[in-house]
């Protein structure tokens, strides 16, 4: 985006519409600084985190426009992109009546290869169990944690 005279900061999104015939809307999200690596102080892979933030911001922007099918770019970190997009579009609706529930968009990885498909399933798996853990008591947490670890 630098070459066109604009810069999109990390986590910010620009949505373009009617640009391409295959996709009605395209969200372009800022990834932050280039060449970030593992932050030993935070024990965090900043590249994966930037991908998570960008994919989530883009998916949220498209979801807010009512788009029900979203293709997510993997950015070379497909699992992190899938996790970010799934976290951003997830809605807690367990206690809502069926007619009051809002739709959650279907997510897929753009240019879906087999490895990307596996990463998307793993990313969605992580998100589902992260929210499941929010709903269980602490005594049940250790039992569930043991089951997840031991398959």
From TrEMBL:
Peptidase M17 leucyl aminopeptidase N-terminal domain residues are 10-98
Q: Which InterPro entries does the record associate with it?
A: Macro_dom-like (IPR043472), Peptidase_M17_N (IPR008283)
Organism placement in taxonomy: Eukaryota, Metazoa, Ecdysozoa, Arthropoda, Hexapoda
What this protein is called in its record is: Peptidase M17 leucyl aminopeptidase N-terminal domain-containing protein
Please give the superkingdom of this protein's source: Eukaryota
Could you tell me which species this protein originates from?
Periplaneta americana (American cockroach)
One Pfam family recorded for the sequence: Peptidase_M17_N
